[in-house]
Amino acid sequence: MPDIAQCKICKKPFQSFGGHTCHNCLVDVDAAQIKIRDYLYDNPQKSGIDDICEGTDVSRNIVLYLLKEKRLTVSESSDSAPTCIYCHRPIGNGLMCDECRALISNKLQYAAPKPTKKKSPDDSRRSQLLIDLNR
Ligand SMILES: [Zn+2]
Ligand SMILES: [Zn+2]
From start to end of the chain, where are the E strands? Predict the structure, then answer.
């Protein structure tokens, strides 16, 4: 015996065979998912919920349902600017923000081999200490 459940989208009671939506909405949701996928493919910059509702005429209820069921992912904001690969701060372009770029070039300088002279054991211990202090 199927249970009577409330459709998660249109809120009408329906005979549930384990699903969360009535048959009508199920058809709508499947159609909407394809519509949204195509829309996002054509408009990767406009992946906010409002953009999707406007661009596809899909009702907000259905978009939210798809999100909840993890059948759809949207970005929090509609601008999908590139982000720094290290700190994930939005940046204009490139791979990383100025701060991380500076940090990394500093690290590279430290890592670069320094010219080494023959030193007495005492001297090398002293420079080792200096390096420790610099850290
Ligand atoms: Zn329904
Ligand atoms: Zn950064």
Answer: 3-6, 13-16
Q: Ligand 1 centre and the CA of 23: distance in Å?
A: 7
Looking up tokens 């372009």 gives 93
CA distance 77 to 45: 10
Q: What pTM was computed for the model?
A: 0.51
Distance 51 CA to ligand 1 centre (A): 23
29: number of Cβ within 10 Å: 22
Residues with CB under 5 A from ligand 2 (ion): 84, 86-87, 97, 100
Task: Tell me the CA–centroid distance for residue 4 and ligand 1, in Å.
Answer: 12
Distance from C-alpha of 107 to C-alpha of 53, rounded to nearest angstrom = 47
Among 26, 31, 28, CA closest to 16: 26
pLDDT tens, residue by residue, 42-91: 988 887 888 899 999 999 999 989 888 888 876 554 445 677 788 888 77
